Structures are given as structure tokens and as C-alpha cells.
Amino acid sequence: MEIKDWTSVSFDEGRAVLRQWREEHARRSEEIVELWEHVLSRYPSSLNDELWIVYEQVCIAALDCDRQDVATECIVALDKQFPNSNRVMKLQAMRFESIGKYKEALQLYEKFIAADPTSVSFRKRKIAIYKVKGERMDAIRELNEYLKVFLNDSEAWLELSQLYLREGDYSRAAHCVEELILADPFNALYLRRLADIRYTQGGSENVEHARSYFEQAAKLNTTCVRSLFGVIMSCNWLLPKTSGNRKKELVHSAEQAISQLEEIFNGPGNANEAVNRKVVESLRKTLQQFS
């Protein structure tokens, strides 16, 4: 539906649109609030039993838009209809978050988690609060506890890795990405992330691992410029410290990566041809020092 002025639609149209967006999990917060204020809120009783799910939908949208008046109106109506409902209290906790009352929000989430330790959403909201407050160590602790229960949550492993990186704890960050690779060994992004971490850690062993992971990532995603640059950088780091056949192997690996870069740079849709050519020439010139 390509309607932009949602204030002019009929009640039935507005109702159908909200239902469609709920089914599609569409996040169209401003439009949802607009539809509610100008169309549906005029005849709420006409929604019948659908009124309560609409209140919830509008409340979440209102919190997105910082429309505390609309969000509070929805929560009050829902609480009156469903007193002591966890679902309504979750909305209240989200409202506390939106106005910076993190202590009150945390208290509610802890209450929910105590009642249901397997709840994913409440645990993740608690972690999100710690992150917003800048309390990274608390967020790390909570994520570790969460992953003891939900070991296969790749999003959580990735988030934990990023938190460890911000703390400069590269070993633990690498471990998190290794867990991701165990679950999805052909994911080029995970391989490249692990390569980045190993390269940053430094040292011959780590850089050698980084080169291997960059090469695997480049094989899985042949157009990934970052992975190819990673191969070249790793080889250039290792070359002064090697000799003989090992040195020839590294030179060959770097030459292949440079050739792949050249193909990408010469491909259709790539601007700055002169700049790209200079980059390739510079990379080859650096490599020639070791040939």
C-alpha cells in the first residue's frame, strides 16, 4: 500500500494496515502512531478484541518515536484490562528504558528472569541496558551467563566478541569468533573477523593464523577486497622473518591475492581506475623486495 498521508484513510483501511504490519513484523513506528492518533483512536471499541494487540503495537511504536504520552496511554489501558500481566510489565520496563530509568527497568527484567530463566528477550534487554549505561563488564558477565543456557545464539557470541574487543581482550574475542566458526565453518565474515583479531594480536603464530583465515575467507567470497588485503598484509609481515621454500610460498600467496585484487579493480562498475592501478603497482613493488 503506497499511502503516505495516513490521516485520511478509513477506519477499516487503518485497521487492515496495522494488522498487515504486525504480521510482517514491519517497524513503521511513526506511521503506526499517526494511524492510531488520527484514525483508530477515535473508535477504539470498534476494534473489539483486537484492541489489546493494537494497544501493544502502538505502545512499542510510540516508544520508538519518544511519544511518551501515547505509550503511557496504551500501558494504562492494558494494565487496567490485564492487571499484573508480565506482557504489560514488559512494556512498562521498556518505557523505563526509554526515559532513562534503568534501575527500575532492570528490577523488572530481573523479576521476569527469576520467574522464567529461559526467557531470551528479558535477558537481552538486561544486557542492552548495561551496554547503554557503558557498563561493559556487567554486559560481558550477563552475556556469558546467557550463553551458558543459549550456546547456539550466534548473535550473542558476536556481540560478546565485540565487547571483548572494546576491552582490548583479544584472546577472549577470538574465542567467541571461533565458537561462531564451529557452528558455521563456511561463513566468510566470521573467518575474516577472526583473521582481523589474530593479525591485531601480532606475533608470528597469530599472523600466520590470520593469513590462513584471510585466505579461507577470500576463497569463500572471491570479491572481498578486505580479505585479499589481509592476505597481502599478513604475507608482508611474515616475509622478513622467513627464508627458503617458506618464503617462496608466502610470495606466491601474496602474488595471487594481488592478481585477484587487480581483477576486481578492473571489473565493471569500479571507478578511480588510476588510483586502483597505483595501489596494485605499490603492492607489487613492496612484494618485489622479497622475491
UniProtKB/TrEMBL annotation:
Each TPR repeat, start to end: 86-119, 154-187
Membrane topology of this protein: Peripheral membrane protein
Any Pfam family hit: TPR_EMC2
Principal subcellular localisation of the protein: endoplasmic reticulum
Gene Ontology CC terms: EMC complex
InterPro entries: EMC2-like (IPR039856), TPR-like_helical_dom_sf (IPR011990), TPR_EMC2 (IPR055217), TPR_rpt (IPR019734)
PROSITE patterns linked: TPR
Protein's UniProt keywords contain Coiled coil: no
Swiss-Prot/TrEMBL keywords: Endoplasmic reticulum, Membrane, Repeat, TPR repeat
Domain EMC2 TPR-like stretches: 89-196
Superkingdom as given in the UniProt entry: Eukaryota
Compartments where found: Endoplasmic reticulum membrane
Database matches in PANTHER family: TETRATRICOPEPTIDE REPEAT PROTEIN
Subunit structure: Component of the ER membrane protein complex (EMC).
Job of this protein: Part of the endoplasmic reticulum membrane protein complex (EMC) that enables the energy-independent insertion into endoplasmic reticulum membranes of newly synthesized membrane proteins.
Family affiliation: Belongs to the EMC2 family.
Protein name: ER membrane protein complex subunit 2
Source species: Steinernema glaseri
